[in-house]
Amino acid sequence: MAALMQALRKEHADMAVLLDLMDRQIAQFQEGAAPDFDLVRGIIGYFLTYPDLYHHPKEDLIAERLRSRAPEQAARLDGLHSSHHDLAYLTRRLATATVDQMVRPGDEPRQWFSSLGRDFVDSNRRHMAMEEEHFFPLALQVLSDHDWAELDGFVAADRAEIHVRALHDAVLEQVGSA
Question: Domain with 162 in it: what CATH number?
Answer without folding.
Answer: 1.20.120.520
